[in-house]
Amino acid sequence: MEKSVEVQSILKSLEPEDAAPDARPDDSIFTQLLERLVQGYSLRIETGAEESDSLEILLDGVSDSVLIVSPAGSILNANHAFYRTFGYDREELLGTEMFALLPQGQQAQFRQKFADFEAREGERHAASSDDILAFRGLRRDGTILTLDCLLSSIHCSGRPAVLMLIRDLSFDHALFEQLKETKDHYVALSETITEAIFRLDEDFRIIFANSGVKNTFGFEREELVNEPFRILFPPEVFAQHEEEFKKYFVVDDADRLSLGLKRTLEVLGATKNRGVAPMEMSFGNSKEYKGRTLTCVIRDITQRKTLERRLRHLAYHDKLTGLGNRDLFNEDMKVLLGEAREDPAWKGAVLFLDLDGFKRVNDTLGHSAGDELLIETARRLRVCLRDRDSAYRFGGDEFVVVLGGVRESGDATIVAERILSTVGNPYILRSKGKNAGGKVNVGVSIGIAVIPEFGATLEEATRNADIAMYCSKEAGKNRYTLYDPVITAKATEHWNTEQELAASMTSGGLSLAYQPIVGPDGRVRGMEALLRWKRSDGRNVPPGEFIPLAEANGTIIALGEWALRKACYDTRRLHSRGYPDLFVSVNLSGRHFDQPTLVPTLADIVRRSGLPPGALCIEVTETAVMKNTQDAIEKIKEIKRLLPGIRFMIDDFGTGYSSLAYLSRLPVDALKIDISFVTNLEDPQNEKIVNAILHLARSLQLDTIAEGIETRTQWQYFAKRKCGAMQGYYILKPSGLGMVAALAERQSGVLRRTVSAGEPAEG
Ligand code: C2E
Ligand code: MG
Ligand code: MG
Fold first, then answer.
1. In terms of CATH architecture, what is 317-487?
2. pTM given for the model
3. Which of ligand 1's atoms lies nearest the C-alpha of 530?
C-alpha cells in the first residue's frame, strides 16, 4: 500500500506547467512520473527500504524501452522491452557502454547530450523537445532500428544518471514507406495507362482526371476537373444512361451483378475533336473520401469495334462476291422466322439459284473468267432486290435470295422473273483466258419457297427451295418453280434420295461387294470392289441408278473416296489372312479427275490404309480420261510417282471412241473389255472387235480382262485367245469379302489337281 500512496503523491505534485509546450505531451507526464518513481525507488534501495529488483519489476511493466545509463554511457539498468528490442539478455548488457548499440555516426550526439546533462547536474528541468533524439540503433543481429528517445536526468542510487525512454519507430517508418510506394505506384499507373480515369462526386462532377483523358477524349485534364461528367457524352446518351450511372454510384462491385448491373458498359462518348466514339466504361467501388466518390475508367473501343466488324464480315461473307454466306443466311433466317412466328400475317420467300452453264465457262475460259462471272452475277442480283431483301452465295454457282416480306407468292415470282432477265443478259468477260474477252451467256434455275407457309423452319425452307430449284432444272433450266407439295412431289422424292445417299456413308446403308478376277488358269488374282446401297426402307438400289445421281450432284466424290478407303482396308485384311498376292480394283468416276485435290487425296487414302500400292488397280472409263486428256495423263503419272506399283485400267473399253494415238499416250496398264462384246460373241462384227482389242493390247503391252463372263463358252473363248484375266457370274457374282477368300481357299487345294484344265475351280 505504501507504493500506491507514493505514486499518488507524486502525481499530485506534478504541476501542468512542468510540461514544455512542444514536448510529447503524454510522454512528458509519463517520463516525469517515471523519473520520480525511479529516483524514489533508487533512494529507497539505497536506504535499504526496498529490494533492488523492485525497480526492474516496475520498469518491466512499461511497454516502451527504458534505459538508465551513467553520464559516461554505462548501462545501469534497462527494462525487458529494451532487451527484447535490441535482442540481448539482461546480463550481457549491464555495465557495458550503451554506445556499442549505436552506429558510429550516432554516438557523438549522445556523448554530447550526456555531457550537457552532467554539466547541469542537479538542475531539475522539464523535458523539452531538445531532449528528444531521433537515432538509429543496432540490433544484435545487425539490423538497424529506427528509434527516438526522450532523455531526462535523474539520480539513481545517489549518483546522476540519464533516463532514456525509447520508442521503436521502425514499424511506423516501414508503413509510411509502403504507403508512399503504393501511392507512387498508383500515380505512375494512372498516368501511364491510355484509358481515361475519373473520380466523380455525388453530383457527377469530375473531381479527378488522369492524363489518359487526353488520349481518350482529347481534353486536357484541367479542362475537365470540376466539370460535370455529362460533357463527355452526347446529351441523349447521357440522359439514357444517367439512372444507370447513379446505380453504379451507390451499389458496390460485389453486389452489382446480382442487381443486374454489368461489369462494363458500352456507350457512345463525345470527344473534343473526333466527334462521337464508342467507349467502354467500368466502375470502381464508390469510396468514402471526403464524401462518397465513384471511380470510372473509360476506354475508346473504336479500333476494337472496327476489328470486330471486319472479323464478323469475314466470317459471314463470301470473299469473292461480298455477299453473305451460308452462316449469315442461317442467322438472318432465324430472325425472319422468329418475326413470322410473332406476326401471323408476315410472309417472305427463299429463292435458291443455280447458274446454268457456269461449269462450262469455268472449264473452257478458266477460273478467273468464272470468278468474274460470279462477281457480276452478285452485282446483278443486288440490283434486283429491295433494301429489306438479301442475297447470299453458298459456294460455287449457288446463290440464295431472301425476300424479307412479300404480300403474296406473286411478289416472289416477279423478283424471280427480274432475276431471270437480268442474269440472262450477256456477260462481257475481261479475263485473259485463252478465249477471253468475249460475250458469254448463262441462265439461272430458280426454286422458290414461300415462308413460313412452306418453310416454318430453316431446314424446311432450304429443303423446299432446293427441291423447287431441282424442278426448274428438270424442266429444262433457266426458269423458276414455286414450291408446291403436289407439283413438286416427284422432285421431293428425288431430293430425299439424294439426301439419303449423301448420308449413307455414315448411316451404314453403303457397302462394298467384291467380284473375283481370275487368270486363264482359273486362279483368283484379285477382285473388283463394287458399291452397294441399301436404303432405309430396305430396298437395294442398283449402282446403275445411284451412281449417275451421285455423279450429277457431286456426292460421287465422297462416295468414291469412301469406296477406295474401304477397299484398301478390306484387301489389307485379306492379305493378313493369308492371301498376300490378291489385288483390288476400284472404280473411280470421271468427276474425280475434275478435282484439283485428286492426287494428294488418293495418295493419302492409300498410304493410310497400309495397302502396298502394287495391290491396287484403279478403273477409269474412257470417257472419264478423254474429257481432259492431258490433265488426266498428268494426274495419273503423278499418282504413279507417289504410289509406285499402282496400276490403272480402262474400264468398259471399246464403248468409247479412243483413238490409237491417244491410247498409246495414256499411262495405263490394262484394258477391261466391255461386257457388251462378251455377251454378243456370236455377232461376227463383235468378234472382230474383240480380236482387234486383244491384238492392240498385246502390241501396246497392256494386260486385258474380259468382264461379264457368264458361260463356259465365253470363258473358253477368252481363255483360248490368251485374255489376261476374266470376271463374271460364271466365276462368282459380286459377293462378300468372305466369299472371295473362301474361293481362293478352295482353289489352293483344287488347283493343284485341275490347273492344266484351265477352268475356274468353282462356277
Ligand atoms: P463396272 O465397273 O463395269 O462393273 C461391272 C458391272 O458388271 C458390275 O455391275 C457387275 O456386277 C456386273 N457384272 C459382273 N459380272 C457380270 C456378269 O457375268 N453378267 C452381268 N450381266 N453383269 C456382270 P454393278 O455392280 O451393277 O455396277 C455397275 C457400275 O456401277 C459399274 O460398272 C461401275 O461403273 C459403277 N460402280 C460400281 N461401283 C462403283 C464405285 O465404287 N465407284 C464408281 N465410280 N462406280 C462404281
Ligand atoms: Mg469397273
Ligand atoms: Mg465395266
1. 2-Layer Sandwich (3.30)
2. 0.61
3. 38
